[in-house]
Amino acid sequence: MSCRIRKIAVMTSGGDGPGFNPCIRAVVRMAINYDWEVLGVKGGYGVWINGEFIPLPGRAVGGIISRGGTFLGTARSAEFMTKKGQMEALRNLNEAEVDALVVIGGDGSLRGAMALEASGFPVIGLPGTIDNDLYGTDMAIGVDTALNTALQAIDKIKDTASSHQRAFLVEMMGRNSGYLALMAGIAGGAEMACIPEVEFELEDVAREVQDAYVRGKTHCIISVAEGARYNANAIAAYLSESKEETGFSVRVTILGHIQRGGSPTAFDRLLATRLGAAAVEALRQGKSGVMMGLVGNVVKATSLEEVTTRGKKLDPAICELAAVLAK
Ligand code: ATP
């Protein structure tokens, strides 16, 4: 298919994550390679409605490959959820003579991309979310760095937990996704992971803590996703107030936004670069309405429709493995 694209825009939206900058860089440099002009959308869908574009020549993305966050800025915008907001965005894109758009973001951002596509505007989505909950990619951009940040925290907490014979509840991001808490828990040797995908009772957690003590452990680490049935503070309150002796004194560490920041790992930089370049290639091939993702070790296109309607489930075998290895 012949390519009539001359100018594209790139934007980041929703929650940020490490790796967004290398992804923008790859989109820009790849597009320039084909003599396309690139505009950056400052501040996600919200600001964009007011027409905030900045020119992105190759030099504009120099030095950002190692930086966390997104130099374009990001936001959540209720206005863009409305038909009126989307019409404003389309109008601004047309006024700026943009031929196609690349959106880097999570589930919501890709729904926004799909809304624009439905109006006939060419859009390619890229998976950018630390939740790793997007169908159509094994890993989303930012996940590996966030996971390593959580893991470093667990390692450090374990040192102090062992010294003081403590049980630590380490809360991680993930309102609807337990990926980070589960994987950081496995990689960090946690005794239990409490995640939204698995039902549990407070008594179950107390039993795990008791078991760890009885088995002779010097610490008990429990990774908790923020969206789990009970959050870290609720579990800690129960353990501390419970009449049942658990053996350990209990502490809580909430990692919070620390997981979103930091220099992207090699994996995230390479993933972001491959997917950013693939987005430009997809546009050259006349594709639209798809997300480029990593499946196996191959970059593949999946329709945004599928990505946003088919959630990615955690592998139950991994959940079982976590339980077995904690013994
Ligand atoms: P994260 O996974 O980090 O939460 P996200 O991209 O899922 O990132 P959201 O807040 O869900 O973050 O979505 C980002 C923005 O995308 C919203 O603020 C809104 O502007 C737009 N958006 C979300 N859902 C839709 C939708 N159904 N239609 C149009 N736009 C949407």
Task: Draw up the topology in text.
Layout: E1 7-12, H1 20-33, E2 37-41, H2 44-48, E3 53-55, H3 83-95, E4 100-105, H4 107-118, E5 123-127, H5 143-164, E6 166-172, H6 179-187, E7 192-194, H7 202-214, E8 220-225, H8 232-241, E9 249-254, H9 266-284, E10 290-295, E11 298-303, H10 304-309, H11 316-325
Residues 13-15, 45, 76-77, 80-81, 105-109, 111-112, 115, 129, 131 line the site of adenosine-5'-triphosphate.
Instruction: Return the CATH architecture of the largest domain.
Output: 3-Layer(aba) Sandwich
Report the end-to-end length measured between terminal Cα atoms.
57 Å
Name the beta content range: 15-25%
Number of strands: 11
Order of helices and strands: EHEHEHEHEHEHEHEHEHEEHH
- Work out the radius of gyration: 22 Å
Class of secondary structure makeup: alpha/beta
Bound compounds, each kind once, are: adenosine-5'-triphosphate
CATH level 1 name of the largest domain:
Alpha Beta
What is the number of independent domains?
2
Q: Name the strands of the widest sheet in spatial order.
A: 3-2-1-4-5-10-11
The whole-number mean of residue pLDDT values reads 93
Helix content: 40-55%
Low-confidence stretches: none
Number of helices: 11
